[in-house]
Inverse folding.
């Protein structure tokens, strides 16, 4: 198992290099640079000075090599647009909010979604099942900005006195509830449906019949024999979803005015702030890669067959 | 006295297409220490019969709509699920056809034995572990200590079936139901597993229901035989009597399909026999269910209009046919003791 983890960690290196490379190439496809936008009227000499300073005149492979070196020494370089600010500063100041938001949304999605899916499967085709799956389908279908707007409207404005949730910000725990729910609802619905499906399938397996033939209590059959196997696909899906929640929360951050990293990402792309876009892309890629690594490890714990195939 | 007595068992599946009469009035009994063989081709209701005894039929769509299952004087069909759980694995144990899928792939062999022991017996963790090792040893799994922590996929099919058997006998059941226990195994392993079952049956003084579609297995292991066809019993007799004087044309066909020992081509040529397929169990005809395939049914007789009763043609030998071997062309076979 340890060997497997070490090897997986080792393999993340080339993946990160490739991610940096492609981001690099893509950014270079975009015409112009931050100092040559039409809106600004910067004298030619200053433009050249700036390009010199940030190494934009170097051949691409030199720029790439410098950048890779920076990433591995944990220095993502200066922002090209925000004067006197490093990408590291931006990450340090704004990333924790995004991480927390994504983490809370994930927690909500798992803690509510999995039991809901389980209950639906165990009471398949009952009223409870139909109700839960109806709301899961709805929750899965409506976009998060609409969920966010509805949550704000009802729980912060309409019944704000009762619930006491603020409409925006990321300070008190109350302020964190609505954004986390809005972001987590879709994945929650997804986990519920996925768990229900895999659980129903698992309950049909021969080894469940064996467990019954052994006289085991139903509770144990569900908890030990069925749940574990049902969670394997859920865990597989959880990695990418966690990455998506941490990286894909721009809209929610925007609606709730949360000072997360998403806003910087968007402004950096439109402002062609190469170093910020690159830095954030690399960071978020690493997060997704790590989330998948965790998934693989969990997968090995849940399913002994894969564990052996890999060590 | 019979340990298990099944009387007129009827288990039906209520499906969208109609009511499937998977088991349609089956009666038999199993005495302590005896082996009852149930034989018949695929789909004739052997598994559903076994699962009905265990209370393991999938509800819905299946339902026991009639009959009794008397176990040591108790009626099992009316027990609650919790009461049944105390019987299963403890008094009546069952093993299944496919050892590849019958064990949970995510739990060790040891866990799957120990959980059974601890469910039914008041036994400590350490004692359960020791007992599990003894059991693996007893079913002939080499190096049982190290096998305990192995996952099922590390074991071969034969070894897995042995592990299944270890689980089944762990709580010393009085009845073991083995549903095609060797069908999924290599031919070379089949005989070993069958021998093991016989050995264990003797040493544990268990009764056994051995389900198979292979008359060879019946010949080797059964004391009494039930031949099933399309959800019904068509012939029932002690094993020697059945092999010496088969009465039902279907039994004769099954025996004809049994390869002879001097047959050079071995077992591959099994089921030469019976042309045609069994009838649909949804709305089966009010007639002899075997009539369409029976070489002795002719248009003049009542086979197509009348369902024959299961009748005792000789003491202890029952047959459901208008054309049993001993009555064909007016002949009666002399029975010697
Ligand atoms: N889940 C099910 N739904 C409908 N019919 C079923 C189901 N399971 C079994 N049956 C019916 O029951 C009959 C007997 O099946 P089974 O007892 O498994 O046969 P076998 O003798 O091969 O063990 C089959 O012919 C099939 O039509
Ligand atoms: Mg079967």
């Amino acid at each position: 198992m340890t060997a497997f983890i070490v090897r997986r960690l080792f393999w993340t290196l080339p993946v990160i290099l490739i991610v940096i490379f492609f981001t690099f190439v893509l950014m270079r496809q975009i015409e112009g640079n931050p100092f040559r936008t039409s809106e600004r009227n910067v004298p030619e000499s200053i433009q050249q000075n700036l390009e010199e300073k940030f190494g934009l005149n170097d051949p691409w492979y030199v720029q790439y090599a410098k950048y890779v070196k920076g990433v591995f020494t944990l220095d993502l370089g200066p922002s090209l647009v925000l004067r006197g600010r490093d990408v590291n500063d931006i990450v340090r100041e704004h990333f924790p909010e995004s991480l927390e938001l994504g983490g809370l949304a994930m927690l909500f999605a798992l803690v509510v979604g999995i039991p809901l899916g389980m209950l639906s499967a165990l009471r398949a085709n009952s009223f409870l099942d139909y109700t839960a799956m109806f709301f899961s389908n709805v929750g899965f279908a409506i976009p998060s900005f609409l969920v966010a707007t509805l949550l704000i409207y009802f729980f912060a404005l309409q019944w704000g006195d009762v619930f006491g949730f603020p409409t925006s910000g990321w300070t008190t725990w109350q302020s964190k509830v609505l954004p986390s729910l809005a972001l987590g609802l879709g994945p929650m619905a997804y986990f519920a449906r996925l768990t229900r499906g895999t659980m129903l399938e698992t309950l049909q397996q021969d080894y469940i019949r064996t467990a019954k033939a052994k006289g085991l209590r139903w509770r144990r059959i569900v908890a030990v024999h069925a749940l574990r196997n049902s969670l394997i696909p859920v865990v597989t899906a959880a990695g990418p979803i966690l990455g998506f929640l941490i990286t894909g929360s721009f809209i929610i951050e925007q609606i709730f005015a949360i000072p997360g990293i998403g806003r910087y990402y968007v402004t950096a792309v439109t402002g062609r702030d190469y170093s910020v876009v690159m830095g954030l892309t690399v960071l978020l890629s690493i997060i997704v890669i790590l989330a998948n690594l965790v998934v693989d490890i969990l997968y090995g714990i849940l399913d002994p067959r894969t564990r052996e195939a890999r060590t | 006295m019979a340990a298990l007595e099944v009387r007129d068992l009827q288990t039906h599946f209520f499906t969208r297409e109609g009511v499937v009469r998977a088991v349609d009035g089956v009666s038999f009994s199993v005495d302590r220490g005896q082996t009852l063989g149930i034989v018949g081709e695929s789909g004739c209701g052997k598994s559903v019969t076994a699962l009905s005894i265990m209370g393991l039929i999938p509800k819905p769509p299946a339902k026991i709509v009639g009959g009794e299952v008397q176990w040591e004087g108790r009626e099992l069909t009316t027990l609650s699920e919790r009461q049944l759980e105390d019987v299963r694995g403890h008094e009546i144990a069952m093993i299944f056809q496919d050892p590849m899928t019958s064990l949970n792939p995510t739990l060790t062999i040891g866990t799957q034995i120990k959980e059974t022991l601890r469910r039914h017996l008041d036994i400590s963790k350490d004692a359960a572990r020791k007992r599990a090792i003894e059991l693996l040893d007893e079913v002939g799994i080499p190096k049982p200590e190290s096998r305990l922590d192995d996952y099922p996929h590390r074991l071969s099919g034969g070894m897995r079936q042995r592990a299944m058997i270890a689980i089944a006998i762990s709580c010393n059941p009085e009845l073991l139901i083995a549903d095609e226990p060797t069908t999924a195994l290599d031919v070379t392993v089949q005989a070993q597993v069958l021998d093991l079952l016989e050995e264990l049956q003797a040493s544990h003084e268990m009764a056994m229901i051995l389900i198979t579609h292979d008359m060879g297995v019946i010949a080797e292991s059964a004391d009494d035989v039930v031949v099933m066809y399309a959800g019904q019993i068509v012939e029932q007799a002690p094993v020697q009597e059945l092999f010496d004087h088969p009465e039902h044309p279907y039994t004769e066909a099954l025996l004809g399909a049994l390869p002879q020992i001097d047959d050079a081509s071995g077992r591959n040529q099994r089921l030469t026999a019976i042309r045609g397929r069994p009838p649909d169990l949804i709305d089966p005809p009010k007639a002899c269910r075997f009539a369409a395939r029976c070489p002795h049914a002719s248009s003049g007789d009542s086979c197509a209009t009348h369902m024959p009763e299961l009748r005792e043609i000789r003491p202890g030998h029952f047959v459901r046919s208008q054309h049993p071997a001993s009555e064909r062309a007016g002949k009666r076979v002399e029975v010697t003791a």
DSSP finds eleven helices and twelve strands in chain B. Residues 55 and 79 of chain B are 9 Å apart (CA to CA). Chain B touches chain A at residues 54, 56, 81, 84-90, 93-94, 96, 98, 101-107, 115-116, 119-120, 151, 153-154, 164, 167 (CB under 8 Å). Chain B has two domains: 4-222, 232-260+272-330.
